[in-house]
Amino acid sequence: MRSRAKVEGMPSSPQRPSSFHILHDDQDGRSTTVWWRWRQLYPGIYFFAAVWAAFALFAVVDSFSEGATRAGPLAALLLMGIGYGVAAGLLNRTYLEVDASRLSIRHEPLPWPGGRTFRAAEVSGVLVESRTFQDKNGASRSSYSLHAVIRGKRRVRLLSGLPEVEQARFLEQRIVEGVLGIQS
């Protein structure tokens, strides 16, 4: 079961989460670059990926034996996909850059979808949305996403999967709203 809600009632000046790093922050508050490593967000995913990679590797090796199934090529593709995802998770950083002319998000060094740039004049608001997932035992987990309101109408997801509300609040209030001078 899933639910989504706008996160409200936050203090006006959240502290910088320890997993976020300020790369550039000019003295007059008109431009800021914040980055964070992906591997800090979901460390448990690597165990899951290792188990699936082991099964895929077994299927690839088994495909070379006599009478084996033809699952080898499919398993090889799965193994490459898992490998690329794990490499991106270990190596990539997300950069959020904001200045008076633009709002930009990019993921480096390995290419990954979701990077985008908007002119600052197009951004009329920024908001945090929470998504709560419940498993079959009733335990719930929340993740947070950051959305931009473009030209007062269209809502565009900038970032998703942030595990702590403080991370999303920091990006929304101190960085985006503070630099762009907008209130959501």
Record the SSE blueprint:
Blueprint: E1 2-6, E2 21-25, E3 31-37, H1 45-62, H2 72-91, E4 93-99, E5 102-108, E6 116-119, E7 123-134, E8 140-150, E9 154-162, H3 165-180
Antiparallel strand pairs: 1-7, 2-3, 3-4, 4-5, 5-6, 7-8, 8-9
Helix pairs in contact: 1-2
* Largest beta-sheet characterization: 5 strands, antiparallel
Mean model confidence by pLDDT: 80
- The low-confidence parts are none
**What Rg, in angstroms, do the CA atoms define?**
20 Å
- Which outline best applies? elongated
- How widely separated are the two ends? 28 Å
User: Beta-strand level of the residues, as a percent range?
Assistant: 35-45%
Question: Which structural category fits the helices and strands?
Answer: alpha+beta
H/E element string?
EEEHHEEEEEEH
Number of strands: 9
Strand order, largest beta sheet: 2-3-4-5-6
In which range does the helix fraction lie? 25-40%
This entry's quaternary arrangement is single chain
Count of individual helical segments: 3
